[in-house]
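Hi support team,

I submitted a single chain yesterday and got back a structure, but I'm not sure I'm reading the token output correctly. Could someone confirm the output below corresponds to the sequence I sent? I've pasted both exactly as they appear in my results page.

Thanks,
R.
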Amino acid sequence: MALIEARNVTKKYKVGSEIITALDDVTLSIEQGEFVAILGTSGCGKSTLLNMLSGLERPTKGDVIVNGVRINKVNEKNMSKFRSKEMGFIFQQYNLIGSLTALENVMMPLTIQGVGKKARVERSKAILERLGLGSRLNNKPSQLSGGQQQWVSIARSLVSEPKIIFADEPTGNLDSRTTIEILEFLQSIVREQNKTLIMVSHDAEVAMYADRIVHMLDGRITSIEDNRANAVGIKLDSVAADEIEPEKVESIPERGTEVE
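Hi R., thanks for writing in. Yes, this is the structure output for that exact sequence:
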């Protein structure tokens, strides 16, 4: 059974007296351990589809099933709990809280889950150190470069060990070097920890890191491209994902000297 399913999903918005159809009868299945890119130009419906799959919005028609749960029938209170347990989010604008340090931002999902302070600090510090931000734990977002802020956002998305990661244009504001580093890291997380990653992008080169590329236009899926044989980045053809232990992934070099 697929980990995520959208079944005949339609989403309409009322803008003044006009009805806008953002999604038009979209059906999509995503398996556990897949890296799926949703590709299309601005206004094609890709971000709306991501919002449907993650339960941030509800469809006008159709159903969304995640890990056996029909999430469009779950009330918002329980949906928030479900998201905090099952999902991590990475946004183009980072969405960090300006008054909190990098460490405190990463701790937020664990705080919401009620994890004790000692465990929150230890887990958040460990993942930031792994991502090369060990010297930036006490820096606030305004004291970090754009790339560093996105690494903090990635750490926050992973600290609660979710099954599913949703990424909305995660490299849209970054330089080419940081873009490659982040895409290769996300790809490695999928391969080595059997995570499921759904990434929205307008950039065909970015989408080439994915296992499958879902092409969208005018609220519809026009084609789904199997990209496994051509995916750029890390190649693990001879090793199964479940044979690799997460702790064997090398830490990313220290990012304390990164500049914009």
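A quick pointer for reading it: The radius of gyration is 18 Å. Let us know if anything else looks off.

Best,
Support desk
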